[in-house]
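Predict structure. Chain length: 186.
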Amino acid sequence: MVALAQLWIPIVVSAVLVFVVSCLVHMVIKWHAVDYKPVPNEDDVREVLRKNRLAPGSYFFPYCKNMKDMASPEMVKKHVEGPVGYVVVRPNGAPNMGKYLGAWFLYCVLVSFCLAYLAAHTIAKGTAYLEVFRVVGTAGFLVYGVSQLLDAIWKSQRMSATIKYIADGLMYALVTAGVFGWLWPR
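Prediction complete.
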C-alpha cells in the first residue's frame, strides 16, 4: 500500500495539466462552440423571463409536482404542445470566469485526490507504469468521461456534444493516468 501523502505531487501535477488541457480545448480549439444554439427572438424570451423575475436556479417546463400527475390529460397536453425544456438561470451580471475556473480547478484537484486514494489502496509501491496508468486511467475516465452521459440522458443534450465531452474526459483521464504512472512511488 502507498501512503496518500506520497501522492500529493501527482495529485497537483495532474490537476494542473487537466486544467491546461481543458483550457486548450475550450479556449484555443473551441470545438464546443457549436454545441449551443441561440434562442430565436432572444430579446423577447429574455424579456418574458425578466418580467417573471426568475431567481437563479434550474427550471423545468412544463412543471409537474409529482410523477403521478404526469399522466393527467392537462400535463399530457402540455407535453404534446411543447415546448418541453430545462432552463438554468444564473445571477445577473457578467459571468465571473475566475470563479468558474477556480471551481473547475478545485474539482480537478478533488478528482485527482479521489483517484490517488483509490490507487493508494489498490496499487503497490513500485508497480509498473502501465499498471498504474490502467487503473488510474480507467477510474479517471469513469469520472471525467462516462459521467457526461448523464446530460444526454436527463437534459436531452445532443449526442454529438456528449461525444465531444466524453472525448474531453478521455483526454483528461489519459493525462491524469500518465502523471500518476510517471510519478508513482518506486
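Summary: The two ends are 12 Å apart (CA to CA).
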